[in-house]
Design brief:
The longest helix has 20 residues. It is elongated, with a radius of gyration of 28 Å. It is α+β, with helices and mostly antiparallel strands.
Length: 432
């Protein structure tokens, strides 16, 4: 039978044990912050009816969504993000959920795009969302969560770019844009990638009067105060209220950058929008999201009409893969090790029962330990421990067993000490 080449698709990855240890470390840190703020975990199906996913993001989102027909000729899709599946989830379970409902979700999503650094076809997102209230205190709390997550990950130089879709729509209205506002917003969202010349050409094709003046108005000034001053003629109440709340929550204004050109190209955003960047990393957005007033309302709410008074939602997605790249680049994961701290070696078959009993004692003591499964040469067992980053190995041959002792070898320091076998677990506990 012909051997199968063990390949994977471009844009997908295998993760070696140490990589998984690092990813688990970061996920646990993020999850811990989410739970500190009262967000609860949910999970939604990977496979969805295509109508659940399609038509919510805009033309590009639909193009990048994986869809196919299953054996029952049903149109099926993989999730493009976690926000739309959450909106469906909220509509399906409305009467069972405390409103407003705060959830977090850490799952894979899929996008059919060309793989490159920081962009994959299969990747994780870490989302928080609140549904069931229009209060701008939600936006402020989400900003606080963003700051706390990156502080926990030792990424202290994050900037939260902020804008208002309502403000942007008002600005577009002044320039005569009404019918094609979503198309224009998607085009403005390309400014960083395509540049003003190309974006200006596309805006002109969309019928925007004086696109150069529009882009000049939307360009940030040299300070946030001067940028805000450019829009004094517009209704800025949502941004003013947001900053009052963030001040009260202790988030310094230096954490924010008001960027009136920030668009977040997805169609479902309606209010405050965020995009988070870290210093001069060059990785682009590592977190983003915003307010969506109508998304959950696209689904039939499974509750008595009188019980549903507010379906607006707000949330952000943390770009887990880019966060991992950033932390690796900055050396923030160098100290992460695999889980085992101790390896019990097996000297020979006669000593195997003694080794198993020693292993049992370490387990009872709550130590992260493992035992080598075979009576192999000691050098081979030590190489195994070294490859897994196990710090301590326990060695007991006939002489040590006779004296009721065990050799504790510190693989990091290259030192060893002989201790009483009965005290081995407590000795290791005192160090670890």
């Amino acid at each position: 039978m012909k051997k199968i080449k063990p390949t994977i698709l471009k844009g997908t990855r295998d993760f070696l044990p140490l990589e998984m240890a690092k990813r688990s470390f970061v996920m646990r840190a993020i999850q811990g912050i989410f739970e500190r703020f009262g967000y609860v975990a949910i999970e939604t199906p990977i496979l969805s009816p295509a109508e659940t996913i399609l038509g919510k993001y805009g033309e590009e989102g639909d193009r990048l969504t994986y869809t196919w027909k299953d054996r029952g000729e049903r149109d099926v899709a993989l999730p493009y993000d976690l926000t739309v599946p959450f909106a469906r989830y909220a509509a399906s379970n409305w009467t069972e959920l405390p409103m407003p409902f705060k959830r977090y979700q850490i799952q894979r999503v899929w996008r059919a795009e060309k793989p490159q650094k920081g962009r994959l076809r299969e990747f994780y997102q870490c989302d928080i969302d609140v549904v069931g209230t229009r209060s701008l205190l939600v936006e402020a709390e989400v900003a606080k969560v963003i700051v706390e997550v990156f502080a926990a990950l030792d990424i202290g130089d994050v900037i939260i770019k902020v804008n208002s879709r309502r403000l942007m729509n008002a600005v577009l209205g002044k320039f005569g844009v009404t019918e094609k506002s979503k198309e224009v917003i998607r085009t403005i969202d390309k400014l960083d990638k395509s540049g003003p010349k190309e974006v200006g050409r596309e805006l002109n094709e969309l019928g925007v009067a004086e696109p150069e003046k529009l882009m000049a108005l939307l360009s940030p000034a040299e300070s946030m105060e001067k940028t805000l001053a450019k829009f004094e003629a517009f209704d800025m109440t949502d941004l003013d209220e947001l900053f009052r709340y963030t001040d009260l929550l202790g988030i310094g204004r230096d954490r924010f950058q008001f960027d009136p050109s920030l668009a977040r190209g997805l169609d479902y955003y309606t209010g405050i929008i965020y995009e988070v960047v870290a210093g001069d990393s060059g990785l682009g957005s590592i977190c983003g999201g915003g307010r969506y007033d109508d998304l959950t309302g696209l689904f039939e709410i499974q509750a008595p009409d009188s019980a549903v008074t507010e379906v607006s939602g707000m949330g952000v997605a943390f770009g887990f893969e880019r966060i991992m790249l950033l932390m690796e680049e900055r050396g923030l994961l160098a100290s992460v090790k695999l889980s085992s701290d101790v390896l019990v070696t097996v000297f020979d078959k006669l000593e195997t029962p003694n080794a198993v009993e020693l292993y049992r004692d370490l387990i009872r003591a709550g130590l992260n330990a493992e035992i080598y499964f075979e009576a192999a040469k000691l050098d081979k067992q030590l190489k195994y421990a070294d490859k897994k980053g196990i710090r301590f190995t326990l060695i007991a041959g006939p002489a040590e067993t006779k004296e009721g002792e065990v050799i504790v070898k510190d693989m990091e320091k290259g030192t060893q000490e002989t201790v009483k076998r009965s005290a081995a677990a407590s000795y290791l506990q005192s160090i670890l």
